[in-house]
């Protein structure tokens, strides 16, 4: 059983922003969008279920995704939204403008807007599209100012703390697909500040996310990916723009996002109790999450024949990481 759900925050969301910089003061960043682990915690997802997402939704029954990286426009940069878009093509070992634009200036706009899923499918097949009805990112970063913190509690005096949060635009929601036999609550919490969110089932008209593609030559990354680097299940490489652990002919990807998680390891306190061993939580070695919007071209056989998250040894695909939409040039 599977069903789509919208997740609508009731206020600003704070993710990954509780580490001050400097003594008694600091300013920290805010990560967005929430990743699969954040969403699974928000939904209280049972272990027998999995999710796809995050995607974006504004109440029309349509899925919105990040505009892929190798997309450009020609018109003046004074235009608020692009009125015609084109995609770069892979020729002679590099991404190039389309032949009719070789002598013209272009502006790369990939990764800066949202596009409807069905519109993306049409655009990618044609290579260009008029009036694409792109959407600006429906969220903004806000800075909340208050006194400094001590042990994560705000102090009455003695410093300044600038906390970065994210506020979604009215009418917009995070969109996820939940697969498995489970019943979700109508309310949940998201982010470090425990922002309340409304969780509601929605009807989605599109089925292109799971379309078969018998001979795909490439794919668009629809959700952030934690690609496993190295071999034999090891993470021997920590490159900032990781690619799928497969033969890749070409790719276009945005800068990676630092990503860590907690894990429990064995620890022995040699000073206080050298004979007692316990398990403590530590951060995993740093990895990089590739943001949505990357585009990959395969070298040889494709890893999938149907659009979906690419399975990996750590089962991250069950939380929606690395959702690939396949295409054929």
Brief write-up:
With 329 residues, the chain is mostly beta strands. 5% of the residues lie in helices and 39% in strands. The chain has helices at residues 36-43, 117-126; strands at 2-9, 25-27, 50-57, 64-66, 71-73, 84-87, 89-91, 94-96, 107-108, 113-116, 128-130, 135-136, 139-147, 149-150, 153-154, 160-168, 173-179, 187-190, 195-202, 218-221, 248-252, 257-259, 262-268, 277-283, 287-289, 295-298, 308-309, 323-327.
What tags apply to this protein structure?
single chain, mainly beta, 39% strand, 329 residues, 5-stranded antiparallel sheet, 5% helix
Describe what this molecule looks like in 3D:
By secondary structure, the chain is mainly beta. Among the domains are: 1-58 and 167-210; 211-257 and 286-327, no CATH class. It contains 2 helices and 28 strands. It has helices spanning 36-43, 117-126, and strands spanning 2-9, 25-27, 50-57, 64-66, 71-73, 84-87, 89-91, 94-96, 107-108, 113-116, 128-130, 135-136, 139-147, 149-150, 153-154, 160-168, 173-179, 187-190, 195-202, 218-221, 248-252, 257-259, 262-268, 277-283, 287-289, 295-298, 308-309, 323-327. A hairpin with an 8-residue loop joins strand 23 and strand 24 (277-283).
């Amino acid at each position: 059983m599977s069903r789509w759900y919208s997740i609508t925050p009731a206020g600003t969301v704070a993710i990954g922003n509780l580490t001050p910089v400097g003594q008694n003061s600091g300013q920290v960043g805010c990560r967005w969008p929430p990743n699969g682990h954040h969403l699974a915690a928000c939904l209280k997802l049972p272990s027998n279920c999995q999710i796809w997402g995050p995607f974006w939704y504004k109440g029309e029954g349509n899925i919105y995704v990040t505009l892929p990286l190798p997309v450009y426009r020609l018109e003046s940069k004074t235009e608020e939204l692009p009125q015609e878009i084109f995609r770069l093509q892979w020729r002679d070992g590099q991404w190039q403008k389309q032949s009719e634009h070789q002598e013209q200036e272009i502006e790369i706009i990939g990764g800066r807007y949202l596009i409807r899923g069905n519109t993306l499918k049409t655009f990618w097949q044609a290579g260009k599209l008029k009036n694409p009805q792109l959407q600006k990112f429906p969220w903004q970063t806000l800075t909340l100012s208050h006194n400094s913190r001590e042990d994560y509690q705000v102090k009455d005096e003695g410093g300044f703390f600038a906390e970065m949060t994210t506020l979604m635009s009215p009418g917009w929601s995070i969109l996820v697909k939940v697969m498995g036999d489970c019943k979700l609550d109508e309310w949940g919490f998201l982010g470090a500040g425990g922002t309340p969110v409304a969780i509601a089932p929605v009807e989605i008209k599109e089925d292109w996310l799971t379309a078969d593609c018998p001979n795909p030559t490439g794919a668009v990354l629809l959700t952030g990916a934690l690609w496993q680097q190295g071999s034999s299940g090891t993470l021997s490489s920590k490159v900032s723009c990781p690619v799928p652990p497969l033969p890749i002919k070409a790719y276009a990807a945005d800068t990676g996002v630092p990503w860590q998680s907690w894990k429990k390891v064995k620890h022995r306190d040699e000073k206080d109790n050298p004979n007692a061993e316990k398990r403590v939580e530590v951060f995993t070695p740093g990895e990089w999450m590739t943001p949505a919007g990357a585009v990959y071209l395969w070298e040889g056989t494709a890893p999938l024949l149907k659009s979906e998250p690419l399975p990996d040894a750590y089962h991250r695909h069950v939380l929606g990481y690395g959702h690939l939409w396949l295409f054929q040039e």
